[in-house]
Amino acid sequence: MRITTMLEAASLVADHRVDIGMVIGHIGDPRASVRTLSILPLGCVLPRRHPLCVRDTLTPADLADEAIIAAARHLPAGQLIAPAFEDANVELRVAVEVNQASVACALAHGGAGVTVLDGFAVLAAREQGMETRPFLPSVPLPARILTSRQRPLPNLAALFVETLDLVKPKED
Fold first, then answer.
1. pTM, whole model, 2 decimals?
2. Mean pLDDT, 10 residues at a time, over the chain (172 residues)?
3. What is the CATH classification number for the domain harbouring 68?
4. Which ranges carry the LysR substrate-binding domain (predicted)?
5. What is the pLDDT of residue 166?
6. Crossing angle of helices 101-109/119-127, nearest 10°?
7. How many Cα atoms within 13 Å fall on the side-chain side of residue 54?
């Protein structure tokens, strides 16, 4: 498994250097076939016992006075957070910007602030026992599978994609 940017994942698949690419967000490369696996909305990860944990959902207005641990703006979630705050006429107070959701979750868990991340990262945080809440308004973000348009998937790769379909998170 290799962690790369979306563009690099598409290029690796199109150039036949890997059989499958997985990305979160919207990607287009005419050389790769793109299939949506699942779509989940952005969500929040908070420190335990944070005052906002009493709420069932969180909005930009709820987060107005919070230090935000933001996904980097070149990441799909990072590209969606600022417009959500702007649309709500709420200033986004970024305390730190990170390139990896795991770092954002660790910082939030440690009390450095609240983070707004893609739904898949939020699911992982919840599975690890962290406090999570839905972010409203709902901002959907898809997980997509990329495969070559020029050659069929090898049997093992096809079985892996089938397994992903069986274990994918259910959409809200």
1. 0.84
2. 82 92 84 90 94 97 96 91 95 94 94 94 92 94 92 94 84 57
3. 3.40.190.10
4. 5-164
5. 86
6. 50
7. 2
Please check whether residues 84 and 24 belong to one and the same domain: no
Residues 80 and 162 in one domain: no
In a domain, 128, yes or no: yes
- Amino acid (1-letter code) at residue 53: C
Claim to verify: residue 73 and residue 105 sit in the same structural domain: yes
Structural domain containing residue 160: 6-39+141-167
Instruction: List strand residue ranges (DSSP E) for the chain, in order.
Output: 21-24, 32-41, 43-46, 68-71, 94-98, 114-117, 131-134, 140-148
Q: What pLDDT is recorded for position 171?
A: 61
Task: Look up tokens 């070149």; give the residue.
Answer: 74
